[in-house]
């Protein structure tokens, strides 16, 4: 099934960016005190953890929304209506 392909590609990009920054998912795991497999499953999109997402993003000097826009894009507020006033 191709629904996992974008998440897999995103995971590979994150790993590459971490390598370029001189880090790794395992290093993020050590810093956060969690298992490397846990960080990997979050990076792959199979699991959510705002703490781990923030840890990975911080290593790259970006916000989590830049790495996982689909996870952070939906605002909690309701959209405002335009026009129609007296």
TrEMBL record:
Keywords on record: DNA-binding, Transcription, Transcription regulation
Keyword hit for DNA-binding: yes
Pfam families according to UniProt: HTH_35
InterPro entries: Lambda_DNA-bd_dom_sf (IPR010982), Ner_HTH_dom (IPR038722)
A single MF term (Gene Ontology): DNA binding
Residue ranges of domain Ner winged helix-turn-helix DNA-binding in the record: 12-79
Family: Belongs to the ner transcriptional regulatory family.
Protein name as catalogued: Ner winged helix-turn-helix DNA-binding domain-containing protein
């Amino acid at each position: 099934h191709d629904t996992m392909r974008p998440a897999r590609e995103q995971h590979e990009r994150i790993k590459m960016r971490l390598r370029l920054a001189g880090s790794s998912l395992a290093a993020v795991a050590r810093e956060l005190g969690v298992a490397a497999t846990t960080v990997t499953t979050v990076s792959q999109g199979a699991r959510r953890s705002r703490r781990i997402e923030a840890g990975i993003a911080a290593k790259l000097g970006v916000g989590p929304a830049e790495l996982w826009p689909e996870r952070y894009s939906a605002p909690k507020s309701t959209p405002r209506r335009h026009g129609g006033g007296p």
